[in-house]
């Protein structure tokens, strides 16, 4: 069964007197268009003012990284850090990782990419970043 929403009498007149519309019809009436499904079925979500591309990414942040920062194990946590890739002074692209942080006990910088599914473009960008920075990108599945 399709979910329906109540509408105002003025809007109902425009839709042949119907008192309710489907969510897609209501969005169309407001000029918003249909809700677009994400390519891999992920659900975007927000936590602490950050928008995450998936619940898995958000949960890794909340259940691992935030706790480790509070425990003093890691520092310099960045969410969605961007790394510009330049070759001979020409900007090629920006590579955005999911997280970066410094591990205090290892005295080492970590780049994290949380993945549900991998694709050729993200593999290429990781290789570019690894070649450019010399740091290994860790994939969290």
Key structural traits:
elongated; 4 helices; 141 residues; single chain; alpha+beta; Trna Endonuclease, Chain: A, domain 1; 2 domains; two-stranded antiparallel sheet
Task: Provide a short characterization of the protein structure.
The protein has 141 residues and is α+β, with helices and mostly antiparallel strands. It has helices at residues 9-14, 23-29, 55-70, 120-133; strands at 4-6, 20-22, 45-47, 50-52, 74-79, 82-87, 90-96, 99-103, 108-114, 137-140.
Can you count the helices? Answer: 4
**Radius of gyration, in angstroms, nearest whole number:** 22 Å
Please indicate the percent range of residues in DSSP E strands (runs of 2 or more). 25-35%
The ordered H/E elements are EHEHEEHEEEEEHE
Poorly predicted spans: none
Label the overall shape.
elongated
- What is the mean predicted local confidence, pLDDT? 84
* Amino- and carboxy-terminal Cα gap: 35 Å
Spatial strand sequence of the major β-sheet? 5-8-9-10
**CATH architecture call of the largest domain:** 3-Layer(aba) Sandwich
For the biggest sheet, the summary is: 4 strands, mixed
Q: How many β-strand runs? A: 10
What's the CATH C level of the largest domain?
Alpha Beta
What's the oligomerization state? single chain
CATH topology of the largest domain: Trna Endonuclease, Chain: A, domain 1
Q: Would you tell me the structural class of the helices and strands?
A: alpha+beta
Helix fraction bin = 25-40%
- The domain tally reads 2
